Amino acid sequence: MTEIEKLSFEDAMRELEATVGKLETGEATLEESIALYERGAKLRKHCEKRLREAEERVEKITLSANGQPTGTEPVEGQ
Length: 78
Fold this sequence. Notes:
Helix Hairpins; two-stranded antiparallel sheet; 2 helices; about 60% helix
């Protein structure tokens, strides 16, 4: 497992935002900018994967006629 794969979604998003901020300032050298861009792309991919995994686990709460929760069912499409 790589260092990025170990990051939580929140930690990866914070780092991605910081990386984008560094790139936007334009103060990094060309080589630094390339390295930042490559890391940012990996962080973005990791965040997308984490979101997909979370969506797959989301369950819809089923309610009875009187509005009380009766259980859960898988998200549509599964």
